[in-house]
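This protein record is not my work; I was only asked to verify it. Where you disagree with what is written, explain briefly why. This is what I was given:
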Amino acid sequence: MNIFEQVLDQKNEVTLANVYAFGAYSDTKPALLCGDDVLSYRQYFEHTLKLASYLDRKLALPGCRVMLVIEDGFSFAISFFGTVTSGAIAVPVDPLIGELELHHMISVVEPTLILASPESMDKVIRVIAEQKSGTANFSPEVICMADSSGTRIGNAEIAKQEIDHALAHRPMNEIAYCLFSSGTTGKPKAIAHSFTDLMHCAEAYAADVMCLQESDIVMAIPKHTFGYALGGNLVFSLLYKSTSVLFPERSTSDRVLHNIEKYGVTILLAQPRIIAEILNREDNRAATRGNIRMLMSAGESLSESILARWTAVSDVPLVEGFGSTEVGHIFISNHAEDVRPGIVGKGLRGYELKLIDNDGDLIENDDIPGRLCIRCPSLFKKYWANPEKTAEAIREGWYISSDLFKRRDSGWVYVGRHDDMIKTGCGEWVSPYEIENLVLTSEAVLECAAVGFRNAAGVVVLKVIIVPTGESPDLEAIEAQVVADSAAKWPMHPHKHIKVVGFVDALPRGSTGKLQRSQLESVTLNEYSYDC
């Protein structure tokens, strides 16, 4: 019997008790590591039930939304599972977001309660006060939550709460949590899931791709307000009795390498940006030659050049995958024994995939890209308070994504997002990812973004914005190189030639680490003039 079958009871219900398998854990089995502190599975279970008991007595459950504005740490993990166990709906948001974005998120989900870290309290209170002075007809209560070596829960009133053990057996199958989309193409949407959705994701990815084991120590580079980390680190580790590393600090290469060595991390859930930074460091032995047995990459497209550089210095498999918040987690992936450059992987078991054109017709030709559609058991239930967008996204059980793929050698190749495509030349479409993959082959380039740029003649041309490596880069030489490389790579396709190069210290990224192309003044889709 696999983990998925063990956790589901005869009524096909997920409960906290069977997720934790409480009796199987000793007081000393580490569940969470953060700083110098350790939280055992038994402590984790008990503190989660304390918070669930507190919320059960305090709120008109089920269905109340509880927003979590908390840095990664014990309090975040306890707050998420405690909220879900109580019957409320957990809504984690990045504590570093600005007040305007927080105002939007609060307006969308209308939380009854907000659990906030001490660092976020003032911001949360200001935003609520502004909403009170506006048109909002609700006023959420705010409770401070902090990590504390004394109570772990970080709130004295909750820490002394009497536990209602019956809550451990309350089903968590209804809508259990909402995650906000990255907002790369507009205002973030609240994407609603049941906890059972994560169970299906775990069966497909944690079992088949991560091959997660009880001895594993897992760490995620993105924060846990991102589904990739929330599922892959916090939830999947819990299901497979492994240990999760949490850290509130920003995910720099310094912090990542320090934590890998300190905790003996065996599985790292990474993103291409950090992988590139690690490769550029001489002191990267902890990542390339340490205890890590598998390096996962998702959240953005992994360039073939980064994969080649990694495999040249490390025997650790670098496994790319692709997922979305709407689907719950990663649903296309390579495997450790089958990593192919340029191919994201194959659809995981339980996930049915197809491509359609702009008219909604099925695409069967491997050479033609199309919009990816997914039918699966982990599909989101709705966009909260947005039935129009929900109806657009889900049609006859299929999720119609904005991601463009094509097939190659029985695998899936990522082309780009429908709304990121650039129209140049005589109306030809260009994938920014194809251009970026070429530019990233230069050792002088740390990261880059290709966008459409309207020149003085009003014609859209390709512009590449580059973050160079090194302390004193030769910018003129880098510009000349990437311009020449594009002309040499596509001599018969001038619409793919780079015409403008810009340099920045860092690219704009959202809370999930994804590139915010909208902040680069990119000209995309139909905003173009012909250059025939």
Notes: The chain has two domains: 3-406, 420-520. The longest strand covers residues 398-408. The first helix runs from residue 3 to 7.
